[in-house]
Please model this.
Amino acid sequence: MAALAAGDRQAMALLIRRHGPGLRRFLTGVLTTPHEAEDLAQETFLRVWSAASRYDPALASPATWLYRIALRLAIDRNRRTGFRRFLGLEAVPDPQDPQPGAERDLAARQVLARTHQALSTLPGRQRQALLLRAAGGLTTAEIAATLGISPGAVEQLLVRARAALRDITSGELE
Model:
């Protein structure tokens, strides 16, 4: 982070390589418009680049700091998008149609859609904690720091989220 604060582009490239894929997966699950995850990940890294000099290692690990920035940007984006849709200023995007003859891709997309739908039914904090664990690969302590809650509260959120997902998916299989 010190190298990043000094303007070292190699340090930024390393940060993107390490955290970019997980950050995009996390944002895909958190955003109400998942196709914006790539744009918001780029915006997150731009914010990190410009604010690197303000990073304090005593307050958070680099991953926690990065995901906290991403989470705040995602919350802001969801609020703006929801308000614009409410006013009728933005159309809801249509799902992508699969290519003809791609049955395997279709099945994978259906599973992904069901999973995304199940995730969207979870309360916000449960969904965020679960995605930070699954997509971001963060530890309980890092999730706690990102969300601003205790590690015990994170464990409770994860237990409840997993139980809710099991209930939802078991109902689909009956």
Remarks:
- Residues 91-101 have pLDDT under 50 and may be disordered.
- The chain has two domains: 1-93, 102-174.
- DSSP finds eight helices and no strands in the chain.
